[in-house]
Amino acid sequence: ENKEVAQASATPVVVKYLQPFRGGIQAHNVARHSIGFIRSGRKHIYYGDSRKELVAGDLFYLGIGNHYFEDIPDGDKPFEQISFFYSPEELASVLMTLNLTYNYRIDASLRHGAISSDEPSCICCAAWPTVRNFFGTISHYMRDEQFMHDHTAHNIKFVELIYLILNNDDCPMRSRILESTDTLAESFEQTIHRHIFDNISIEELSSLCHRSLT
Question: Please, what is the Cα angle at 136 between 149 and 60, to 5 degrees?
Answer without folding.
Answer: 90
